[in-house]
Design brief:
Elements (H helix, E strand, L loop, with lengths): L10 E2 L5 E2 L2 H16 L2 H11 L1
Antiparallel strand pairs: 1-2
């Protein structure tokens, strides 16, 4: 099995369309990672651990 040597630069947008515009792809990745790592649930759990 051959490994891919690049990361696909495409994202599926809210309306179901696929975009390969680099600025849109990077903005979507940034939004998704920030949302994943900075969710309210995560903040609450971290506050509980600190106390």
């Amino acid at each position: 099995m051959d490994r891919k040597k690049s990361i696909p630069m495409q994202v599926v947008l809210e309306d179901g369309t696929v975009s390969d515009d680099v600025k849109i792809v990077l903005a979507k990745w940034q939004h998704d990672f920030c949302t994943l790592l900075n969710s309210d649930k995560t903040v609450i759990m971290l506050q509980m651990v600190v106390q």
